Amino acid sequence: MAVTLTEFTRTLDPKTLPRILQIQSGFYCQVLKVLNFMLNLHFIALINILYKQCPKYCLAAVTLTSKTCVLKGLFRIVVDPQPYLSIQEIVDSLKISSHRLGQHTFISADQIQLPQDSVKEGESFRITAVSTDQQSGGHVDCELLHREPKLSFRLELSQQGHFTECEDDQFYTLRELAEWKIPKGRKRTVTAANAPPPKDVLFSTLLENISGELTLTPVYELQAVMKIRKSIALIPSNMDVEVMDVTEQFDVNTFIQPLSLQDVFHKPSDIFPMVTDVIEGPLVEMHVPVELLNLLHSDQVIIHKAYEARRILATEIRQESARHFLIPTTYKGRFKRRPREFPTAYDLEQARSDTEQLHVVATRGFDSTYSGLASVLAGDQFIVKKGKMSEVNGNGSAVNSLSCVKIKGKAHEPVRLPMCLDGGFMEVVHDKRQYSIDEICQRFPLPFNVKVSVRDLSFKEDILASVPGLRIEEQITDRYLLISTLDQSSCWEVPVNRIHMSVHLEKSWTGGAPTAVVNSAVEKIFEDCYYTMRRYAFTTVMPPPRPPKKPKQPPSPHPPVISRGNSTDRRNSTAGIERTMPLSPATLPKPVLQKAVTRGQSLEDVCIKIPDEDDPHDYEYIDEDELENIRKQFQEQSISISTKGKPNNTI
């Protein structure tokens, strides 16, 4: 039965591709093989706009195309409030697979009884796989979240209920949203998760002074091939034609088989080397040398092998618009060290090396309130002895202090600094040697700051040489194809994940291994690519420890006492636990406030200390508006006193 192309695309299951279609109407009369359907690099976006100057909502329809930088942006998903009424509806609407983006989480509004246990009302679970069986009807494999030990179970596709999406704290590119996160027959609402694109872009100009949600409706293209031509035809899904699925009546092998570089990578290794026709491409998601682009625009190339290679991820040391690079291990340039900055003592511990000691100078002071842990003044110098990082004490408890040496002239004093010390340290670099990129990764803990001191002369243009400073972040393993021209005069490593093109494997190559030097490019990658690589890197980094607990005392029956002596003596003498809380100038005794002003004390010094009976940690939670009012009154009092001369300290 003939259907519109839009209807065919809406109901198309990607697992059944390729499909053979016969066009039944319109100006076309052709049989074509549909290879894939994909985002047409633009969305129809309905923007729920909140103007910052005038907080009123309005709607605007925008087409996001490949010419807008927002395609390279990152987005967070807004939970769809509409529930799914069965597991079958979830499976029909979403793409479920073992891929990390294909595992969706839901909350059940009803209790689900299992053979050995149950999913309670309000509990969340993740769908990890789907299995279809004509006899049993099929099922999904699930695991219950936030319960120890973890519970794995199965749900039949016929399971009824009210299943709502869980909150998703990850961020996604538009391509990932289109491929994995937009349910069939539904729209997807998102919010921007990163900084706006440059102001010279039309879309960013529209959003310059607004914030809000975008409701995305993707527009897809069908990738198809015809018998009469080798090239791939891109057919918009909303083309006004009717088609009929005639897959069972044709041999799909009578059509050519275009492959992406990722498809080629997954081919058996014994088929290489292969002479390959370039059908379409390349679409490049990075900055690459002209020589490599010329190679990829050839009509035919030789693909010699597929393999994984190591790369070093680095970022330009810059406050804004920092560039990101993937550096091959074969890079022949040399690097000199640059000083690193450490915001906390915990970062000093993370940077501890077993090859050298670390010399730093404090850039900001810190007053320690913890027994046995030292305070820090700006300008203090410390040495962190070399050795492996300590994660636990001998008794198995977590380390909450950093042991180091404080430099006092020619003397050295052992001290301990709180891991939670919110100060700042700058490294003092004594090492003037030059290192290769491999030596840096082997000798020093990452991240590590460097600058190119000798450029790689094998490149016509070494883009790293002009970068004032680089932060070497981590080593990664990525997928590559070794591709050369037919005469083998040019041979390059080609990343399959950042260069998109279609090829057709023509025949085996019998001319032997490549004779030209294998070139590896320094890749300047886009921001979304960088964050995709780094997305889960931070989940393996342990956060700094919480401030040390103070011994818990029974609550005092006495109210807090305000002392008129020195601010360090103002405390509740019966309380073992103390917590500083600012006072309003209106409630302070006048002499206390005036003394504070004339002595140059800050508002935070004018305080009382009261026991905290519930919280084992010494944290504070202060309303920002209240604190701002206190500061304002304090400043007005300061101005009033300074204009009247020296204040009288009697009431």
Automatic annotation (TrEMBL):
Chain spans, region Disordered: 541-589
A GO cellular-component term linked to this record: cytoplasm
Top-level taxon in the UniProt lineage: Eukaryota
Domain called CABIT: residue spans: 17-253, 272-505
Gene Ontology BP term (one): T cell receptor signaling pathway
Homology family: Belongs to the themis family.
Protein's UniProt name: Thymocyte selection associated
Gene source species: Astyanax mexicanus
